[in-house]
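Dear support,

We are seeing what looks like truncated structure output for some complexes. This example has three components. We would appreciate it if you could run it in full and send us the complete token output so we can diff it against ours.
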Amino acid sequence: MSSSRPTRLLRASAGLVLAFLYLPLAALMAFSVNDSAATVWQGFSLRWYRELWQDSSILAATANSLLIALASTLCSTVVGTLAAYALWKQRSRLLLSTVYLSLVTPEVVMGVALLALYQAVFRFLDIRLGMHTVILAHVSFSISYVVLVVLARLRTMDATLEEAAMDLGATELQAFYRVTLPGLAPAIAAAALLAFSISFDDYVITSLVAGVDSETLPMLIYAKARRAISPSVNALCAVIVVVMGSLVLLAQRLQER
Amino acid sequence: MKRRTFFLGLAGLAGCTRQQKPRLNVYIWSEYIAPSTLETFAREFGVHLHHSIYESNEELLAKVFSGNSGWDVVFPSHYFLKPMRQQGLLAPLDAGRLPVLGNLAAELQHPAWDQSLDWGLPYMMGAAGVVHQQSVDAQAQSWDLLWREDMRGKVTMLDDPADTIGAALLKLGMPLNSTHPQALQAAKEALVAQKRLLRAYLNSEARQQLVAGELHASHLWTTTSLLAMDDSDALAYYYPREGFARYADCAVVLKESTRKHLAHEFLNFLLRPEIAAANAEESFTTTANEAARTLLPQELRDSAALYPDAATLARGQWFEAIPPDAQRLRDRIWTEVKAR
Amino acid sequence: MTPAAGGLRALFLAPAWLTMAGLFLLPIAVVLAYSFLTRGAYGGQDLPWTVESYIRMWDPLYLGILARSFLLAGAVTVLCVPLAFPLALFIARSGRHKLLWLNLVMLPFFTSLLVRTYAWMFLLRDTGLVNTLLLKLGVVAAPLPLLYNDGAVIVGLVYSYLPFMVLPIYATLERIDLALLEAAADLGERPWGVTRRVLLPLARPGILAGAVLVFIPSLGSYLTPDLLGGGKSILVGNVIQNQFTTARDWPFGAALAIGLMLLVLLLLRWWEARGGGELG
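Here is the complete output from our reference environment:
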């Protein structure tokens, strides 16, 4: 078993990379409890958190972002996983090319293209830009990520297992549900996390297809941050990290039971 | 109530909390309106006023371009009125519903871009000049400061083609709105020569770096400069002697709006002197409302940056909507400067 | 694969096809149509049909920008591999804490890209943390110009897209049969040898998938280069974005976008031919 445990070198290098990932966040969090708006430390204070809590636009934007991310993650994970499975069974060059094409499309082009499409559709239907248009847009760009991540996992799996199950009398659906799906769980979880973070994060496409009542957190932060680096935005970020972290840990606890 | 909305939203019930009151959707530059203005209007007219913010004319245009954005009142700069009108995005203003237009500053009563104020109601005026650390050169009066070798790595220009190519043209003694290829070529060379001295092309982000002393001089809008100067006594601001760019942000009613009557009420409300004064005070801007100026606190009313004297104003030039060919050339020049 | 897979496969593919056709192919078709139109006098697009936008693309100015963008995105991708591999390997080996570590990698990415980018501005600026520390320690006499250059852009992009490399590598490594590694170790391979001769080749599909996931968003990015590069350098993403906003030349922007997509597709084909068979 010696080689399957992380060696000291591996631990150290993984630790360094994690430090790289967390260093900027740690700085942000540190300065979110700084008593001064400048980047000079002036003592501990929660004033930016109070300011945050009093800002109704931040609360509304957070609710919008979460709702959009949850809805689009749910859709894209289900649709993407099914598609990846079907592609694993038998390749479809056409769909795979489409998936790759959607990945190579610059965000801004995707945003403008969707906007142009919506505009054309709106000509016939009395609909305005809003939550629905944002959710649809997010589904469209996160599906490809789900397909790729799940497919990468499927390709390392043994296809004969399903065949064996079917030889033993399982239907196609049962073979998928009982044999393949459980083994896919980690990849699906990873894909859903990826889809969620991309959706929660997106600024470029969202800002183009969002309407009056669908302002998201990144849009708000962009508008605020373009003016100045505000400690209340740092505080907001710290809150998100802490809340998400707790949720993620909780989810993991539940899984281990 | 807002917090409850938040939690309901989390529960996926956001749709159920819509107010039944009539509503008005206002899209405006960030930090450009006093919160009290919004609250007072909502209370007085019994409406739900929803507002959100943007940072550039381009952002605004991209947003409302579809004609299905849902916004009622937006605030483009005056030289965007023409393209927006051409795209059929604007509803004509009904002067009959705006009885106090006379409150506007004299030069905005019949501006060149909209002679009888058919399309946009001037809201705030602005300009771009040079803000700098006094210790560097207290006597500086020219664009040349931003081209000086000893400022290497300590200067920024606006990240906006109209403003920055305009500044280069003015520095060379040419009109702000030059469309002649030779003039633009000369401006390009000036900008390319300047680039190795530049720290970056920055808009509002320059403010903090000026306050922190990281920057020596910046090509910046008056409003942003004043916000920086409010935080640092070491800074000073001037309108270069070669000339400077001016603009006016105008309140417009979008053609797609289904609440044009209420939108006009809002515009008229903005014309009230005490409201206009509160907005100008909040945002450190030059109000387009002459009647409001006397209500401002002394230091704003007498600010030479916000309300320059006639001699200074004579050097100011208004931006103009540029014809398509010149626009294309400008864009290519901007790309070329950036690619160097 | 199996002939019986037909019905279920069609059922599973239908929702994906519906989404991709309605929300991707159709909008792209609109962009394609725009790219052959003429720029409207004040933005938008008008008849007549023309290929003018495609001819304008061959300007050395735009080709140069494209080349620079490829170099930058390539550098970002290459830097991501050595950073992601140990982390992915470590996670794959950490037994029942796998998910915990995986989530730790993902956590920073639940925060906004914009805030993360600003965090780097925060660190790298003259009065930022890095320069303050260096000055305090006496390493430098004056603040280093860390911000507003290509280095800052690369760091920002690596930081932004690193998880896209970690996740697929992890997904592949996690499936590797431990017995293989034990066998290698029993045969006297040292850990480094096992990594190089056994793990890396096995992780290849993950690395290639990761490379695609990192390279492509880097190539089309414009927010990070703009903020960390201080608007001083322009990438192909910025040129395209400018056409849709500042320049209001939608047909040219559309043509550039289509051109970029075709180029990336060609690149993927080449990649595939070079042995990245897993790429589709």
